[in-house]
Write a structure and sequence with these properties.
By secondary structure, the protein is of the alpha+beta class. The protein has helices spanning 3-17, 69-75, 86-95, 119-134, 140-157, 161-174, 187-191, 195-205, 221-232, 282-294, 300-307, 339-356, 360-373, 381-393, 400-410, 413-423; strands at 28-31, 37-42, 48-55, 80-81, 84-85, 99-104, 109-116, 212-217, 255-260, 266-275, 314-319, 326-334, 430-435.
Length: 445
Amino acid sequence: MSPGNLGLGLAAALALAAAPAWAILPIQQWQAASGARVYFVENHDLPMLDISVEFPAGAGYDQPAKSGVASMTQRLLRSGAEGMSEDDVARRIADIGAQLGGRFDADRAGLSVRTLSSEAERRRAIDILARSLRAPAFPGEVLNREKVRLVGSLKEADTKPDTIVSRTFYRLAYREHPYALRASGEIESVEGITREDLLAFHRRHYAARYAVVALIGDVTRAQAEEIAEELTRGLPEASGQEPELPPVDPLAQAATRTVPHHAAQAHILIGAPGVARADPDYIALYVGNHVLGGGGFVSRITEEVRQKRGLAYSAASYFYPLQRKGPFVISMQTRSDQAGEALKVARATLATFVKNGPTAEELEAAKRNIVDGFPLRIDSNRKIHEHLALIGFYRLPLDYLEDFVRRVERVSAAEIRDAFRRHVDPARMVTVVVAGDTPKQVDAR
């Protein structure tokens, strides 16, 4: 098959992948000889294969003076390895019509590939992925180029109100915890990153025993086992215990910051450390937040702040679960002269919800909306693969997806109220306002 036809073939397969595929296939799990944990869903509906290999190597493993090393390490995995230059990697991936990607967040980092499942294309894609993971070159010229590009990007971002409000919020909410660090690093720390920093981080965090391999697609179990072995063979040897993040301490008291900015509207974040991914309260919090601020125009925060009073252009809330307690956040954008009133309404709405929980009608509507929308979360191999990698990295039960709807349907209003009381204290929240004029009444409770 020619490269052009390969690209057309993959494009056609991608189009088919968007068709509904609501049945949840069983997840197979095992440990590779390298020590890596492998999660596999066999699906022969499409001639495609999605693979990822992820590690405990996210921004949370940075050191303050070296913030940005984790991100740069992941970024440069695709810049050449074992005789392949950056251009070689890009050209070889294009030649087989595959897609090489990656993931990077506070907890995890790694690479992924999406390829046709035919043997020739599959083997070439896996070879590129394996070589990039086990022996990245981290070429000095590419590192210098990326440092210059990133520093320029950070300087521009630091002038924007959404960046300022986010950075200030995380610093106040997480203080000395590594979740307070900016994932990309700071200008000074990025400028100081060396190739030796990347090599050392790769040796420590990209070890075979820490790897999580997720595969879904048109291969057999035997082929999946062979792929997992090839991808993790030759990775660095683990040095000591798997890296762990420290616990997140609760906020001792509320904190409020206002930051002057020439923006036409105020950017507001209210929140605190909330919930870890594996916490048994997560489903109750997820369903409850759908009522509070995660359900769009039918949620309370949107209704009270925007619909009834016209105090915000946008208003919502969310939980972002991580390995340790990820943040609970209420976000709003409004006119600077309305910021104080918007804050009062949002805080009052939160306090009432934490005290009383949802009504029976609100809970039933939230459940119906979540359950009816669930098929859209698993209607393609790509989406299932995202869940598969998440289940593997956070060691969630293998029936997590199958049991999701049942768990949502079983949640009671009392369970939601109790979960919110355990995880959200309206009296101990961080509030950050970035606005053109110092907003009045930002400290009002």
